[in-house]
């Protein structure tokens, strides 16, 4: 079949049986898409809140009882010339001796108790995560990210087998309950264990809701809804920062951000199962129930004999043995999966690498965190018309490559100039804006590339690559001790290599979603070649 004919048969105006029954987008889809996007807010809460759990506070080695009347300024000045991890031995010194520095031992001893400024409570102040225990704070976040890496795949398998709605609501319940329990943990080890579980559940909520969102709509509305689903994340950054401003105790903050998630359980009464998942798994009776309600809400009449039409594409052989191995069953699926793993790894490494490497813009942590959320908005808004008009593949490839080039432009200024900080900041923001656009496009593109029967597994397995990238980011910047430009250089390579990897994938814009691994009505595809990928 010619390239021209394929585009004719599968353009953006083509409707599958679900679209013909309820329309590509209507009041029913709008209501549900709006609701599903909101589940992204508590997900971002749990991702972002450690910023405030472990925020820095003024700290000094604790004064012995006999020196409580000494001001903290004098105490620090007289006894801690280096840092708060060691202090002068004052076991035999008096107050007068300390004030006059007479008979005060110059021997340094290791500090094992600290005092903090009176500004709430953090993980650092409560569990003494200082000095030789400082690395434990990053380790707690590594536990969360490990849960993210594993949860995307396992819960994806569950979702593809048990359904989007059941998986989503179960995970939302667990997410809120575990989040609330964390607020009462007595031990740091238990905090880490629960954060591991929370990472597993949070990514499951995110991807189950995302896949359900795009399976409710058709045509170019998949693009709009896919971007819209990510949009509330920017709002949740602002909500988290504002709440943290008023609640300086990490336990109060954790509870305040976790408990409201239970409100989403009310969606059980009006959130449907994905009609495309029901159709792909042969549950035609349940499909009809969903379509009748949706058509009525959208003021549409169901097509005649739709029950018979729903039976046509179902083949038991096509909907069995759904698992991770199906992502690599054919050469086409292997090409898609491996290319997407490279892309997800690259996007997340560059995005979070830039976040950690941006120069300090001044001000306090709360204002800066709000700004971090707000700068995501333009990238998301601009992505929608570009994706509708230009497709997915080239916008994603170019946004990643431009991000890498912008990072490369930073290197000479870092090496040879210390007076052009504004140039470094400008290129950093250009790179961050482009990679933010990539992070909006990528989930939509990924979900459209995989058939319905393994869509959640596909998106979830891609998230493993993202999770590995996230766990490497803190260690990436340790390389600056060897050469300060190495971390940025790695971001450059990831941006460019990831962008080129996109060109090995087919365009999905305007194409019908593939329902099964052997979809007889889907557009036939030949084995991927570099020339086909670039010039098709």
TrEMBL record:
It comes from the Eukaryota. The keyword Transmembrane helix applies. GO terms for molecular function: transmembrane transporter activity. It is found in: Membrane. GO terms for cellular component: membrane. It is a multi-pass membrane protein. Gene3D superfamilies: MFS general substrate transporter like domains. This is Major facilitator superfamily (MFS) profile domain-containing protein.
